[in-house]
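Page 42, continued from yesterday. The earlier attempt failed because a stray header line got pasted into the input along with the sequence. Redoing it now with the clean sequence only.
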Amino acid sequence: MKAFQLTGKVAVVTGSSRGIGRSIAQHLAAAGARVVISSRKGPACDEVVQAIRAAGGEAAAVPANIGDRAQLENLVSETRRVWGRIDVLVCNAASNPYYGPMSGLPDDAFSKILHNNVIANHWLCNLVLPEMAERRDGAVIIVSSIGGLKGSGTLGAYGISKAADMQLARNLAVEWGKHNVRVNCIAPGLVKTDFARALWENPKLLAQTEAMTPLRRIGEPDDIGGIAVFLASRAGAFVTGQTLVADGGITIAG
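This time it went through. Structure tokens are written below.
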């Protein structure tokens, strides 16, 4: 048995034109999955598709704005039209338009964070879970954050949304487990992506983070991609409702 083999599986990865989402998509494709690349901008999706194909994998692009339910419905229907099914769903796309204390958080920014990071994931999961249940096989992975495990003076709203994602995964794991569908979270620490650029481009903050991290470095996107393969494959068949932390050890060191 090839525990990490995904041959014949179809995976949808949101926010996969760059960063952690791109790494997850590339790792899933390398394990044999046919991968749908999705983010807001079509050309960026196409570039990742070409990179995966050049490496010998199978991929297609279906752009979508996660905040728009109709576009998520189209993402699901187009995937089914092209490849007939969805075996693995990775909810990776997220928003964080505000950096600062909760006392200064505008209502519209808070609403956008909760809408894109929690409600959109709920929508997408419910669009896909019934077909997984019908086949009695499927895996959903929500990319959360260690921000959902501790307090923050500057990323509070984002942390609230990521804590909610962990609870969403637990709820869905309980609801759909009887159908052999697994739902889990990955909670990365600080990873060198465009999304987190404001954190790791600050030399003082970066040095402080590295000093507090047992592995003495921040993450790279490829530190996360392989975890998704584990959760999507037979290797993770008895894991559900869990949050796997990948943070170089920072949450256990302080």
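Notes: Residues 10-253 form a domain with the Rossmann fold fold (CATH 3.40.50.720).
Reminder to self: strip header lines before submitting.
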